[in-house]
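User: I need a structural model of Ras association domain family member 1 from Cyprinus carpio for a docking pre-check later this week. Nothing fancy, just the predicted structure tokens so I can convert them on my end. Input:
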Amino acid sequence: MMRDCERFEMTWGSSASSGYCSQSDSEHELEQFYTARTSFRKTKKRKEKDELVDWRKPELSVSETQQKVKEYNAQVNSNLFMVLNRDGSYTGFIKVQFKLARPVSLPPPQITSSSSGRDGGCREHKALKRGTSFYLPRDTVKHLHISSSTRAKEVIQALLKKFTVVDNPAKFSLFERSERQNQVYLRKLADDERPLFLRLCAGPNEKVLSLVLKENETGEVNWDAFSFPELQNFLRILQREEEDHVRQIVRRFALARDKMKEALENFSTPG
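Assistant: Understood. Predicted structure tokens for Ras association domain family member 1:
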């Protein structure tokens, strides 16, 4: 069984730079989306506005880092402290919330017993090749112990590995979430951003900054980065979603038509 807080050694690397689409959340709060390229799109009631945001935080000197770590640990109400190393680097914990709209894929189960006969062997081989897809609970949370040099793309890979998810890491992105003046802001982290540095600068308050794992937006997808079976699976998912959406529209218009017909039947002309 996995523990909430597990150490993550920085041994992963990734050249993935593409993503996979997801349906947007139907939350009632205002969300402002912007990327690490200093622009964001503000969405509320289908209104959009482009602005420039300076997301970059200045690097800290060794003395500033020491002071920040000291201030951070003074505000922590648990044992999830940051530890400063002699070389000026530091380690600590980050908490990531999963907000995934689509199912994730698990590896096929390991079957140790072998069936006798040629046909039995074929059946076992096919069973081993089939994976499992399921929806992660909406508010799943995971703690990772990382260092100040750990990049966002490495965090994504570590999170998927913790849950034995075999999906391409390029489908997902790490987002910075903050609350200001009753508004919620989401910013997609660049692959080379360092989440623990952001955590240190923001302090331990989750309203000031929290980290969220989500699927990428449709326009950011580089489909050439995926394998043939993955693309086939995407097409099947999109077809099911399209059919479901069409059924919902047909039902809505049929209901409106029935109500109008009912109103016409109850309508009486004078005389």
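Before docking, keep this in mind: The radius of gyration is 24 Å.
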